[in-house]
Amino acid sequence: MLALADHLPAEAAEALLELATGGTPRRPERAPAAADPFEHPDARRRFRVVADVEQLARALEYPWERWTVFLHPAQRDLVERRFGGPARIAGSAGTGKTVVALHRAAHLARANPDTRVLLTTFSDTLASTLRTKLARLIGAEPRLRERIDVDALDTLADRLHERMLGRAEVASREVMRDLVRAAASEGADHRFSPAFLSSEWTAVVDAWQLDSWEAYRDVARLGRKTRLPETQRRTLWAIFHSSTGYGPV
Q1: Could you report the per-residue pLDDT of 206-216, keeping only the tens digit for each?
Q2: What's the CATH number where 86 sits?
């Protein structure tokens, strides 16, 4: 499907991939007979209409980096729409979600001059990439850039915790591994390997922030290959409780 989509007009490729992923393609918009054909959404994705030679010169001088944050008409609708609450934009890789997020942040900052806007992601590397693209997008508006914060979620959490409560002392994965293994060697007899104990803590208890025996007993453990009856879970929880102090045994 992807190979075929490369040879189709953009709107046809989008419809094909929408069908392939179980969706329903939206009906193409029909412009009135007397309407300007360059105003049709499918034309606007292919053409940038300029009014004079000066505008054309500026367009030709634009660096490629600026064109990479250019908005498709459907994306612009999402950027400028007024939502009644939280909204989620979904799409496969390469469909422009990041570009929408950048333009949305800039749009909100422009529309609300007395507020700050926060744009977050899941790693410092991605946050750095977003900052670079945001600078390309609004490089001519330095005051606007000052009101948009771009950070990874964990970096933001660390900064807020330090500001409000002081510097957080977070145990590393290695420290937690040693604590769990030490508790396992001192506890009841069991056949759990050190590797399994560490992965159970990391992938289940810590990942789901389980802080009670009842929560660990009832968690689905999705993706874990080893099935655990309640008796074995109780043994494991006793180990985790001993090493971390999480909840009653």
Answers
A1: 889 898 999 99
A2: 3.40.50.300
Q: What is the pLDDT of residues 128-176, one digit of tens each?
A: 989 988 888 887 788 898 999 999 998 999 999 999 999 888 888 888 8
C-alpha dist (Å) from residue 157 to 122, 168, 248:
12, 10, 28
Distances (CA, A) of 57 to 50, 60, 129: 10, 5, 29
What pTM, to 2 d.p., does this model score?
0.54
Do 160 and 102 belong together in one domain? yes
**Lookup: tokens for 230:** 């309640």
223: containing domain: 173-244
- Asked if residue 148 lies in contact with residue 134, where contact means CB atoms within 8 angstroms, the answer is yes
Instruction: Find, among 117, 94, 113, the residue nearest to 104 by Cα.
Output: 117
**Which tokens sit at 15?**
């419809």
- Cα 134 to chain centroid distance, Å, stands at 16
Whether 21 and 2 have beta carbons less than 8 Å apart is answered as: no
| Residue 152, phi then psi, degrees to nearest 5 | -75, 150
Number of domains in the chain: 2
In a domain, 210, yes or no: yes
Residue 190 lies in a domain: yes
Angle separating helix axes 73-80 and 97-111, nearest 10 degrees: 40
Token reading at 203: 């992938």
